[in-house]
Amino acid sequence: MVAAGAALADEVGLANLTMGLLAERVGVRTPSLYKHVGGQDDLNRRIAALALSEAADAVGGAVQGYAGRDALAAAARAVRAFVLEHPGRYAATIGVEPSGPDDPVATAAQRLLGAFTAVLRGYEIGESDVDHALRMLRSLCHGFATLQVAGGFQWSADIDESFEWLIAFADRGLRAI
Question: Which residues bind DNA (predicted)?
Fold first, then answer.
């Protein structure tokens, strides 16, 4: 049920995902969904956990065997590709708060952070700056990808070139710390 909800969120947008629409998609009556999920909030949390897990897999797989700028580029490209392919499920991850350390949201988020922390090992980042570097990378990747999904780049410069410029900029910044 969660996978169907995530696919539907990607198609119609998370804000437009409803239990009724999901029930229609999977061919059941809306009350039947409550055997699988506790309601809209529970569905959105489960979609967030799924999305974080999928993003962690994508980033973790992309950075395998790379270090430094190559790892950074692989991670950034993986996040961007994930957001472009799955905008609805990615939207579910924004602002979701884990209910505790065993919450699937927390577990998946830690895996994703772990993949980006591994990227930072290729740079001389002091332990006290790791959180700042992680926030910077998330902001760059999130901002670029969500603006692209929303059609926010309407001018003539090639979007892929701009993204590669962003990666080079982040790499220079991380090396300068």
Answer: 18-37
| pLDDT tens figures, 94-149 | 999 999 999 999 999 999 999 999 999 999 999 999 999 999 999 999 999 999 99
Q: What is the CA radius of gyration of the chain?
A: 18
3-state secondary structure of 152: coil
* One-character DSSP codes across 135-146: HHHHHHHHHHHH
71 and 118 Cβ atoms separated by less than 8 Å: yes
* CB < 8 Å & 24+ apart, contacts of 157-163: 163/76, 163/77, 163/80
CA dist., res. 167 & res. 77, Å (int): 9
User: Which residues lie closer than 8 Å to 113 by C-beta, 6 or more apart?
Assistant: 134
Reduced to 3 states, what is the DSSP secondary structure of residue 65?
Answer: coil
Q: pTM score, two decimals?
A: 0.95
